[in-house]
Amino acid sequence: MNPSDSINLRFDHKLKILPEYYYAVEDGRKTFEIRKNDRGFHLGQTVLLQKHSESRYTCDNILVEITYMTDYEQKDGYVVFGFRKLFEIPGKFNDEEEQSDE
Known about the structure:
five-stranded mixed beta sheet; globular; about 45% strand
């Protein structure tokens, strides 16, 4: 049994992330995202980062918490949010059980 089978995972947003960026988050080198703010990101929200490779989900996930936000020097409608990694979660998530705004 993997951890996602035994916990009720709650998060505010779910985002795809390319493998090169996923690995940088995983090992702590990357602690921010630059994203279009079409989801209304806010401080304290949790984001499930899901590794995608060649248009398919790889079942690798990292849950992060937004700790800082700015739109300084960004394109209109874009934000930079800093985050702290909460934990890594292997496994696939059932869409009906997700707490997401997608």
